[in-house]
């Protein structure tokens, strides 16, 4: 149950703070955003344990890299801290929290409040074997690209036509009149819009596929999505610039912060991909597994979301 996970998150944080050898800290002073090699974190008087991306570090905690290893932290004041030798983490008194640090912590806290029960949740992908179901984009979610890729499950031995229509313009304005766009896809179960088709920024669209073609097949349940607006695109660029200002590559050492940016803007598809890249190179903290579960649940991947929540539960035990 997610309730027990959330309680364990709270208790773990309280226990960590209470056991610190310095003054009790109510809030983390740093987050681990990259681990390269073998690095341990010692919380207070506890035994050192392997460092995990997304892990919260408190005043007086120790970060202990093996020779040739390192961890990259982002501190509460918004500074990048590269730790390549044993270090006791501390922060100058009165250091004000930076916006980027606060957003990262708030994103992890929000993920810890998501209901993991999944029971009866709407929007989940529950395909019937051998039948076609729209997979992505769906659930009215935001996509960054004006030429998104559409995905669906397979019906053996058939070809597909894809139908796409505009539901509304930016800010809910009426959609312009016109016929839906039709595309002959063939037997593939993924289709990216061609270069000469560019969807309107900020507009909402609905799509479906016809297994067997539109002349002989019946369409699957349609799904809606919205294309990122120009204003949202600028906000994302500003966030990426802010990460770069700290000397971090948004697609490299700063990839964890990029996950946060995508999640905050509702770009769940991009957040999933970025988080998978983080997980490929490092161990995720319980908090990041909670975030992974939240993202997967939003995308409709029930089984994978449950597995992520269960993994977070295991790490909190």
List the helices and strands and how they pair.
Blueprint: H1 2-19, E1 30-36, E2 39-42, E3 49-50, E4 56-57, E5 62-65, E6 70-75, E7 80-83, E8 87-88, H2 99-111, E9 134-136, E10 141-143, E11 149-152, E12 160-168, E13 181-186, E14 190-192, E15 204-211, E16 223-227, H3 230-245, H4 255-264, H5 268-281, H6 286-299, H7 302-316
Parallel strand pairs: 10-16
Antiparallel strand pairs: 1-4, 1-6, 2-3, 2-5, 5-8, 6-7, 9-11, 11-14, 12-13, 12-15, 15-16
Structural notes for this entry:
- This protein has 317 residues and is α+β, with helices and mostly antiparallel strands.
- It has two domains: 2-117 and 245-316, no CATH class; 145-227, Sandwich (Immunoglobulin-like).
- It is 32% helix and 23% strand.
- Helix 2 (99-111) packs across helix 4, helix 3 (230-245) runs antiparallel to helix 4 (255-264) and helix 6 (286-299) packs antiparallel against helix 7.
- The two termini are 13 Å apart.
Describe what is shown at a glance.
This protein has 317 residues and is of the alpha+beta class.
By helix and strand content, what is the structural category?
alpha+beta
The total count of strands amounts to 16
Strand content: 15-25%
Helix content: 25-40%
Q: Mean pLDDT score, rounded?
A: 89
Across the major sheet, the strand order is: 10-16-15-12-13
- Largest sheet, strands/sense/barrel: 5 strands, mixed
Separation of the first and last Cα atoms: 13 Å
Low-confidence stretches: 1-25
Number of domains: 2
Given the C-alpha coordinates, what overall shape results? elongated
> Rg from C-alpha positions?
22 Å
Helix count from the secondary structure assignment: 7
H/E element sequence: HEEEEEEEEHEEEEEEEEHHHHH
